[in-house]
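Fill in residues.
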């Protein structure tokens, strides 16, 4: 080796060791995708009558206390216009784990309801396909260890119906009023949890613990209808411990703040949240050590002492869980090269869930990666949950051009590296009878019915509403309660064509479809273009 080459080599070594970003960026990052359930990015106003979920402090909410998450956001990248394509649990999660719109699903429940050739209704009928590549399967092929913690709601929908299919599929039944303190009852619950863990692994996960098959109510036990942040958090930490020596992907899906809302008080107690029994878990009664976290009483006292909203103390509860993940990464020496993503599956601001309005589709999103993202970064262009899969795959070294399965999203790798240019000209939204598109300046929402439903409407047939009422037009989804709330809080809900000027009306208070014919025509063209990419899925005049 010549003298000049030796000097150059020494310089490279010194620069690499003195700059952790250069030193670690040569390695593929670990990826931890953390998601809440039903959390909007919109800060409730004083005039909002309902007690509802709040976003994080980094979204501009001064009434909450989330210093750990806000610190990660400040030292990372905040996305100011992040959306999901479907504002209800199953389809949104499907999209996050595939990069495909939910309407492309060929899962058994969806295809049974809506065979090809029929107009479909995307709702909580979307499942991952067992024999089709998805994000975790592709990451496994790339050499990543994959983990699943928390809420599923994306597989085996038929097993979520308690009395129909449990016994015939290896699950043990028990009474809704059963006491998890009873060892025989808890044993049955633990058995079911083990079975759900086994089933989830079949979809591309090496590890599956701290599992909820769907929402808390799908445990079909009154005592277990409570959130347990610690139980899931410990499962996440165990996965990191087991896989810290190789690249990994962790899908960490929280149940808060989905109903039963953690801020509900009965007799002065947060009965479904911080005042619930911490030993009641998704696998029954479990006496585990969570002493690495503050106690629930300490969390409530801290939030109250700071003058923050005690009803939103669940956010600090979750914030501490995120902090435990960060501490675990630092202790393992892998924090610098781990991408931490924090977002929500969809919003629920003023009945926005199950709609295509901002209250349901706009979500909080931040990404933190010391070795790859500059602090104090913001991105003001449109992104959507279709983009997670291609982003994570590219960071893992996967050539996206060689991926054979359909991916609708685009990689945000350049955005993470500081590129501020737009990656989407427009976004597509789908839910039930509704479809929509949005550019940065305009949003267009349509409501169209299949032929059978339209004939009923034309003949004056009334539809089932909420609480034994009858309505002239059906809700987008079959869930009457959610449809009622959505229609109640969103005055344009049933209108056939809706156009909103997002520059001046970000909360969609004025339908300007009839007054802006040029924009309406262009938005209809965009919607027709994307809908024609769904083979054998008619949608009225847009696909004719």
């Amino acid at each position: 080796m010549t003298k000049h080459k030796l000097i150059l080599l020494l310089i490279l070594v010194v620069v690499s060791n003195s700059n952790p970003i250069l030193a670690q960026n040569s390695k593929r990052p670990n990826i931890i995708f953390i998601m809440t359930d039903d959390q909007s990015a919109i800060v409730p106003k004083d005039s909002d009558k309902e007690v509802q979920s709040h976003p994080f402090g980094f979204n501009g909410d001064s009434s909450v206390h989330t210093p750990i998450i806000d610190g990660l956001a400040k030292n990372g990248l905040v996305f100011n216009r992040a959306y999901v394509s479907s504002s209800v649990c199953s389809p949104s999660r499907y999209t996050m784990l595939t990069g495909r719109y939910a309407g492309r699903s060929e899962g058994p429940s969806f295809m049974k309801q809506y065979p090809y050739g029929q107009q479909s209704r995307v709702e909580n009928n979307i499942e991952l396909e067992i024999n089709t590549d998805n994000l975790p399967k592709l990451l496994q092929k790339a050499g990543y260890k994959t983990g699943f913690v928390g809420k599923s709601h994306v597989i085996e929908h038929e097993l979520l119906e308690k009395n129909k299919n449990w016994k015939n599929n290896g699950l043990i039944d028990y009474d809704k009023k059963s006491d998890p303190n009873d060892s025989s009852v808890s044993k049955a619950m633990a058995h079911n949890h083990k079975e759900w863990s086994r089933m989830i692994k079949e979809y591309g996960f090496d590890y599956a613990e701290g599992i909820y098959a769907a929402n808390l109510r799908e445990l079909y036990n009154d005592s277990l209808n409570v959130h347990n942040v610690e139980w899931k958090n410990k499962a996440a930490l165990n996965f990191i411990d087991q896989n810290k020596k190789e690249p990994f992907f962790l899908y960490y899906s929280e149940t808060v703040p989905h109903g039963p809302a953690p801020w509900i008080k009965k007799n002065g107690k947060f009965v479904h949240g911080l005042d619930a029994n911490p030993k009641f878990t998704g696998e029954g009664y479990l006496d585990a050590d969570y002493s690495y976290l503050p106690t629930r009483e300490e969390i409530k006292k801290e939030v109250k002492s700071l003058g923050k909203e005690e009803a939103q103390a669940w956010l600090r509860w979750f914030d501490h869980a995120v902090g435990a993940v960060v501490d675990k990464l630092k202790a393992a020496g892998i924090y610098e090269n781990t991408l931490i993503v924090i977002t929500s599956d969809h919003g629920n601001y003023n009945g926005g869930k199950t709609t295509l309005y901002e209250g349901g589709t706009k979500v909080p999103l931040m990404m933190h990666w010391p070795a790859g993202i500059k602090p104090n970064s913001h991105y003001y262009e449109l992104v959507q949950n279709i983009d997670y899969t291609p982003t994570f795959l590219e960071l893992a070294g996967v050539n996206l051009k060689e991926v054979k399965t359909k991916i609708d999203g685009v990689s945000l790798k350049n955005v993470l590296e500081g590129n501020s240019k737009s990656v989407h000209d427009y976004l597509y939204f789908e839910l039930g009878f509704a479809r929509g598109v949005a550019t940065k300046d305009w949003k267009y929402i349509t409501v169209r019915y299949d032929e059978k439903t339209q004939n009923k409407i034309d003949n004056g047939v009334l539809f089932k509403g909420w609480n034994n009422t009858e309505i002239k037009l059906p809700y987008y989804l079959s869930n009457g309660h959610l449809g009622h709330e959505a229609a109640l809080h969103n005055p344009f809900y049933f209108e056939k064509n809706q156009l909103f000027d997002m520059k001046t009306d970000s909360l969609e208070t004025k339908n300007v479809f009839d007054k802006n014919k040029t924009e309406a025509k262009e938005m209809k063209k965009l919607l027709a273009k994307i809908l024609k990419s769904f083979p054998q899925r008619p949608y009225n005049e847009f696909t004719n």
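Confidence is low (pLDDT under 50) at residues 5-25.
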